[in-house]
């Protein structure tokens, strides 16, 4: 039986033509991958670079003074920000992938997604070139929210310091998190392996089980998880990102490089293994996904384990765990999703009274 010929679209034709032109230029810079095959990570300028001083000018003196300052200092590279080590790690994975698959489009693609004005772009470009970062796609929205462009860029993960924008992205069905700078403790990160750590409930999975914990207590939760052990949990906001990481991991496995794969994933959950761990692992299995290491802490603090792992990024839905991770030097990212946003350290957060007038 003859295989059906793939449909060639106008977009495919344009992309092939663009590739021919790019290759003819013989640039040392690697060509960005085709978006439909890439794992696209959109980062804001304030996560990639430390722009605290510039932000202060914006807040205290206004946008015109801010833009003028950036233009006057555009030859000065910005300082490295909280997402900088992650971006470098993504680039190292790409380097390994290109050696194994020279013509593959399945790579990480980093997009700078910012509401900065275009006039600030020169300093951002100069900083990217100073650090030799491979970031060719920019989206600069001149003060408007960039969230509406995330789907157009086929974004797999959006990282920002603006919690409101992150929430907006999650509501649009895009994996997103608010990044926080770690504490004073310096944790040296791996320069050979990208390490990504995930909480389970309300991050990889929905918050359905967490709702039961909060509303009915642990005993009811344990009974519920045992009863529904073979029913997969619904997906959470970052399931699709774990899926994207798994796609790239399998490319290394196919070349017999499982033991030297430069991507490693971790599940770091407050769940108890014996009481409620089976459903989590069976859910991942039902999705066809693997996790390299699963750590069930049974309510113990996550910070000490994360200090040992030293991930480039750790995702959690509860600020209590984010704060504990930060204190021990872990780069943490908050996923504002689910019932956990209404609680802190297990206690309900008082909601402002509604105006009934």
UniProtKB/TrEMBL annotation:
Domain of life: Eukaryota
The protein's name: Uncharacterized protein
Source organism: Dallia pectoralis (Alaska blackfish)
Upper lineage: Eukaryota, Metazoa, Chordata, Craniata, Vertebrata
């Amino acid at each position: 039986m003859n295989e059906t010929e793939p449909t060639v679209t106008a977009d495919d034709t344009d992309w092939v033509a663009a590739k021919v032109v790019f290759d003819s230029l013989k640039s040392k810079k690697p060509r960005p991958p085709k978006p439909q095959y890439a794992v696209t990570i959109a980062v804001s300028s304030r996560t990639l670079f430390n722009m605290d001083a510039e932000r202060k000018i914006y807040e205290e003196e206004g946008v015109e003074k801010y833009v003028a300052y950036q233009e006057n200092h555009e030859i000065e590279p910005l300082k490295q920000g909280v997402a900088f080590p992650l971006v470098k790690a993504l680039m190292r994975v790409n380097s390994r992938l290109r050696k194994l698959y020279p013509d593959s489009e399945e790579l990480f693609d980093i997009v700078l997604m910012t509401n900065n004005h275009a006039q600030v772009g020169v300093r951002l470009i100069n900083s990217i070139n100073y650090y030799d970062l491979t970031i060719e796609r920019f989206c600069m929205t001149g003060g408007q929210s960039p969230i509406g462009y995330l789907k157009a860029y086929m974004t797999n993960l959006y990282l920002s310091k603006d919690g409101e924008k992150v929430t907006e992205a999650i509501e649009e069905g895009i994996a997103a998190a608010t990044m926080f700078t770690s504490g004073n403790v310096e944790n040296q990160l791996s320069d050979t392996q990208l390490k990504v750590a995930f909480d389970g409930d309300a991050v990889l999975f929905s918050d359905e089980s967490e709702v039961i914990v909060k509303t009915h207590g642990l005993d009811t939760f344990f009974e519920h998880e045992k009863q529904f052990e073979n029913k997969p949990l619904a997906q959470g906001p970052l399931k699709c990102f774990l899926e994207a990481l798994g796609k790239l991991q399998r490319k290394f496995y196919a070349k017999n490089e499982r033991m030297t794969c430069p991507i490693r994933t971790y599940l770091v959950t407050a769940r108890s293994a014996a009481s409620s761990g089976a459903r989590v692992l069976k859910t991942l299995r039902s999705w066809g996904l693997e996790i390299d290491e699963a750590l069930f802490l049974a309510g113990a603090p996550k910070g000490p384990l994360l200090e040992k792992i030293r991930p480039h990024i750790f995702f959690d839905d509860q600020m209590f765990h984010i704060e504990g991770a930060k204190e021990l030097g872990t780069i943490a990212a908050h996923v504002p999703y689910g019932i956990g946003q209404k609680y802190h350290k297990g206690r309900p957060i008082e909601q402002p009274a509604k105006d009934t007038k």
